[in-house]
Specification:
One of its GO terms (molecular function) is medium-chain fatty acid-CoA ligase activity. By secondary structure, the chain is an alpha/beta fold. It has nine helices and 20 strands.
């Protein structure tokens, strides 16, 4: 039978089922309480959505949905019994909870770590993991501080936010089998995975049993056994082959400037090298702001303290060299802190409003 390791303490699943574990931190206690409920056959669970594109909400997810999701991921990666899993995500959210479910369903050894920016810090060079899930910031920090430990991971999935071009290239050079995930709380974590290569765009492959199609306006439609119903998303995609898709952006982020439809995510990919050269490590996004003349105009919002006139000028010159007049950001806003969800995703609409309120 599997077990959960917390530091130097190892707790067999059988003891967790009985509720036998030492008093720990709130994170560890609530994670083990979830495991106890699962091992005792709980039929349903309440999960919170992240709120990255709308108001956060609570949804009910049944046990069968979570079992189907875990089994599909296990089949995709061919995970064997007794695998070593590292759970270093927030287990009140779907991504962290599903790491626990996978470990329980796969009869694995789960290494349970408090979420932090450096999830591998407490492990040595000889420690290895068969399956790990991280968010981009954890991967980025690990590359800086313990890249050799990342190479001790067999399968690494990365979710919660898209990878920057720079991080995507760095991850592609690792020896571990690294994938970007696509999914949401309503699909009980990911329903598709994209092998991380050095150059965009990434091509997503659906999990076993998942069927996809598109609407007339190219929005992704998901028919998955781990979801309760067919889901029509706001994600604009292309379908290059059966069971695969390339993510283009979100329909609710689309900018309509004088009748010209502009997908901000595409512009962000083009701006990324400029940002890396002039504002390394700073987060940014492209959005549509109200315009009396055009209805909406393209703007760039950067998370940074106020910059010098020279830096602002250099950025404007580089942008002018890169974009056509229709796609070129008409204004650049600098704000010190983006609004975020509990899971660290940027709230674009709130951050844009913050920028507009500050500078208008």
């Amino acid at each position: 039978m599997g077990k959960i390791n917390i530091g130097k303490t190892s707790i067999p699943f059988g003891e967790i089922k009985k509720g036998n574990w030492p008093t720990c931190t709130p994170y560890i206690d609530q994670s083990l309480a979830f495991c106890q409920a699962w091992l005792n056959g709980a039929a349903s669970f309440q999960l919170n959505t992240s709120g990255s594109t709308g108001a956060p909400k609570t949804i009910d997810v049944n046990r069968q949905q979570m079992e189907i999701s875990a089994n599909a991921t296990g089949k995709f990666f061919d995970i064997k019994p007794q695998a070593n899993l590292l759970c270093c995500l927030n287990t009140t959210m779907i991504a962290g909870k599903m790491m626990l479910v996978r470990g329980l369903e796969w009869d694995s050894t789960i290494y349970l770590e408090e979420p932090s920016g450096t999830p591998l810090a407490n492990f040595g060079a000889l420690d290895s993991f068969d399956f790990v899930a991280m968010v981009p910031a954890q991967v980025e920090n690990s590359l800086l501080n313990s890249a050799e430990k990342l190479n001790s991971i067999q399968h690494l999935i990365i979710g919660g936010a898209s990878l920057s071009q720079k991080l995507q290239k760095e991850v592609s050079q690792l020896s571990c089998n690294a994938y970007q995930t696509y999914g949401m709380t309503e699909t009980v974590s990911h329903i598709a995975l994209a092998k991380i290569t050095g150059l965009p765009p990434l091509t997503y492959q659906t999990l076993p049993g998942v069927a996809i199609s598109t609407t007339k306006d190219s929005r992704l439609v998901i028919n998955a056994p781990m979801a309760k119903t067919t889901l029509t998303t706001n994600d604009i995609v292309t379908l290059p082959a059966a069971n695969t898709f390339i993510w283009e952006g979100r329909s609710d982020f689309t900018i309509n400037s004088g009748g010209i439809k502009i997908q901000p995510e595409k512009l962000e990919a083009q701006i990324a090298p400029i940002m890396e050269a002039l504002f390394p490590g700073k987060r940014f996004f492209v959005a549509g702001a109200p315009s009396d003349k055009w209805g909406e105009e393209v703007v760039l919002v950067i998370e940074t303290p106020p910059v010098t006139e020279a830096s602002d000028h250099n950025l404007s010159v580089k942008i002018a060299e890169t974009f056509s007049k229709y796609e070129r950001p008409k204004k650049v806003y600098f704000i010190e802190n983006f609004s975020e969800t509990a899971s660290g995703k940027i709230k674009r609409s709130d951050s844009l409003k913050q920028a507009l309120d500050k500078f208008i």
